[in-house]
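Hey all, sorry for the wall of text incoming. These are the two entities for the joint prediction.
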Amino acid sequence: MSAAVEDVATTETPAVEAVPKRAMTLGTGTSLVVLALLIVVPLFVKNFIIFQMTMLLIYGVAVLALNILTGGSGQFSLGQSAFYAIGAYTSAILMEQYNVNYALTLPIAGVVCFAAGFLFGLPALRLSGVYLALATFALATAMPQLLKLGFFEKWTGGVQGLVVTKPDAPDSLQSMLLWLHLKMSQDMWLYYFTLAVTVAIYVGSVNLLRSRTGRAFMAIRDNEIAASAMGVDIALYKTLAFGVSAGITGIAGGLGAIAVQFVAPDSYTITLAISLFLGMVVGGVGWLPGSFVGSAFIIFVPNIAESVSKGLSGAVFGVLLFLVIFLVPHGARQVAILCQQAIGRFKKS
Amino acid sequence: MELFTNQILAGIATGAIYACMALAVVMIYQAIDHLNFAQGEMAMFSTFVSWQLMQWGVPYWGAFVLTLAFSFAGGILIERLLFKPLAKAPILTNVAGFIALFAIINSVAGLIWDFTIKQYPTPFGSSPFLGSQLISTHQAGMIGVTLLLLLGLYFFFQFTRIGLAMRAAASLPESARLVGINTSWMIALGWGMAAAIGSIAGMLIAPVVFLEPNMMGGVLIYGFAAAVLGGLTSPLGAVVGGFLVGIFENLAGTYIPGVGNELKLPIALALIVTVLVVKPAGLFGRAIVKRV
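and here's what came out:
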């Protein structure tokens, strides 16, 4: 059996090694084009689409957080929905019960979730692979029940949850726009706010993975024992990866609470954790821009499946998912590499 | 005291179900090193097939045997069609495949048999077992079938050529191939057997939880928990784990104040995680020594 388990460890790595080392991100040019599109497109679409784009960014950040954990440090979590819930509730409670400004609640949600993730990471240290998956899964199943507990009801609103007010654009910005005879809807303001947060987190994550800490994560992912022999503090960096991932997920959760304007225990079930996991796989494990492709998949594909057939929407979703993993087992990252190669060949000829 | 023994016995009875499911989980895990998230749905589908056969007038044991054959073939088919092509894909891609399979089977079963709850017959009857009020004959029957199954698997793996070949293919695929074992078919066989064992679990639990497309959700989680607790490499461990989880679940629900039905599952899982932190390979699993 020992050999079989080691096989697991070794077969997992090619997923990441199959591509050049620098290819965790997009090139500068492509990134700027994508960013420009993200800035310009909302000006021309309806509010509902803007809302969906906001959700795409928010789930994208949550998938990115999982990607840092799994793609970065090689640990696997099915419990991200729990951290997402903690972040959402932190933001909602601070905003509604204590009148804290919505923008300020996000860093607090991040810190709270970082602490939660770090603490959870400590016992999880001894677990890996399926065992870790089970432990995190336990956390995810317990979370909705814990949120319903009577003890917390004063703050959480129990089963009914909390309604969150949607923020307006800041007054200074509004008066400036008014001067230009423009008006900014709440949805649009929230979108740009989310975009700013997303870009900040994305840039931060890229830099984190390129830093000494990020290299320590990857060393642990590739070979834990070799990494510890090289002097990497395994315990510290594994829990740190958990903490960072949970913290970013918490910020996404806080943003999600503000965007949806509502938190309730049943919004954060294991289904959410599974969705985030699927998003990571579809986007490509360890490829940060893929997180947003994966996020688009988990937001839009269920809708598409629903429109194809109401009764069979689950089956349609499953078949589409199978198609994706059959055609591109390494996710969107594989598509990106193929495109890159095609462009390269085109340039040469 | 009577409440306590009652709870233990009821726990053993539900534990038998978890044990069956855990056996199926371990079978697949041995063959392909993955936890099959669609295992519960495969079992549910098989149970529906047996129900349909009985609706068409096939007697219980006839339907039972036919369903076993159907599940065995179905398991092999799923492996050949869907997961053999994915064998070289990254692990997490495989997990996504299991989730996709889960969604497909659940949705299709819902479409064919809809989501209303159906009665399912028991072959053992539901009268009190041997005059005792503590467990019913069906519960006793479940325990009996699980133990028989475990015994059967033990003999299969210890004393038959195919069983030996399957063990070889699971532990050292390369070397097994060198001595002429068709490892690819051994994996398919593992899938078939896991599907058949899962269908037994499904048919045994259906009289208790009633038949509907989502009936295996909770059971599968307990099955996973049992398999992981007992050690994913050991069928005996899976069965022991199943009984332990069943007993603990019942005791926690009765004696820990404020747990009730809602928190039973989280508490059971928390206990398992605690056990794993102390004994990471599970109670009966072998510890793995790694080298660089």
